[in-house]
Amino acid sequence: MADSKLPSAGGYYPPLGFHFKVEFQGIGNDNDTRFQSVSGLNIEYETESIKEGGQNHFEHKLPVRSKFSDLVLKRGMLTDSEVIGWCKKALFDREITPVQVIVILLNPEHQPLRTWKVNNAWPRKWNVSDFNAGENSIVVETLELCYSYFTVE
User: How far apart, in whole angstroms, are the C-alpha atoms of residue 27 and residue 83?
Assistant: First the structure.
């Protein structure tokens, strides 16, 4: 009997981006790991330009430091969420407690394919979608988190 997992022409299929979970170290329950989307896992160099002495044809661009985007998480609003309690303490009471946030891309067997460990994350913004009696849509909350850096495993 043939194997049910047939290889692609090149032998590899890229992972799908819809099967993932988000964990907040020390905060949350099983519902707090479920998000509709995650964005902001970006890193780039800030650069410094130095003009070449005697040469007017170009500038040297040198790397200065790494720059990370804010992490943006979206999901249907939860009415009971420890993560939102953490956000409210930071945004309303100014009790900012940075945590590690772990974003895990999963395979079809729910095993980790790649893990991003986002360090020293804290809530910068919490947004709730508009309420509109003329639409039949769920309420979506958006969390924007600042962080120091992330690592990839």
Answer: 6
